[in-house]
Structure prediction request, 294 residues.
Amino acid sequence: GNSGKKIYRSNADSCEFAFGNLYIWGFPYHTMQQTFQGHTYLHFPEYALFFPEMADDRENPSAQELAQIVSVMKEADGTDNVFQVRQSYLDAHPDVYDFFEVSPISRAEAEYIYSVQALVDLRGEKLRKKKNLIKQFTQNYPQVEVRKITPDVLADCLDFSEEWRLAQPDPETETLRHEADALKHLAEGFTVCGFDGVAAYVDGKLVAYAIGCPVNHEMFTESFEKARSAYKGAAQFINHELAKKLAGKYLFLNREQDLDEEGLRHAKLSYAPLKIQQNFRLTLKENIMLPEEK
Prediction:
């Protein structure tokens, strides 16, 4: 609806604001969207409050309004912070420091932002290895087929994701259960939320896929990517195919967080991100005096 359109035309540059992500992850995380005094808010219960920062600062809430909302939420469910606040908001609202402790979000929650064109070109020493792996993959599997994500292909992607989860050392971790829950809602939200992606098949078998959705008109976020490890180079191949598909439509690809997982961190750094984006968290100060609601 209107809130989705508002977020899409905002300066929001975090994968947390991608409409598709909000929809599918809203099921495991019970995300709520509310409007207060004309401002759009997203509330992840017991975790954080978010708001999309608009380019025109007159459309943004004041620091005092944020503090008022967080103080109500803190009493209701313990939520004491506003997450993914951009530097530009802090610059425009110096009084934010009167109400909140301001700190960069943790490294685990930082997001990896890449140039789509750089992921297509794969130039330079760092990315040459990727090019070589892709070449190896296409030489070993010249019959590889790249398919767009139709309902049938999506069904294969979901089956593969579940197969992958069940092969993990502990398939029942909260993270993996939440991902499985989000994936269950991907089919129904696929078209309406603007999801898109690519899948690679070898001899009729799905070997890799990458699926994501727009954050704003310049940035696409990769929500899910899986590749069969037995097919060397499949992960690099699918990454390249996604970049080629996005080229000309989006400038930036957000490959989301590494959640402090060493393997993920290494893999994401190896693609030479443009930046590792650490926006800010505003945590409500104790015992601040807020004006009474009129």
Remarks:
- Residues 207 and 273 are 25 Å apart (CA to CA).
- The radius of gyration is 20 Å.
- The longest helix spans residues 125-140.
- The mean pLDDT is 95.
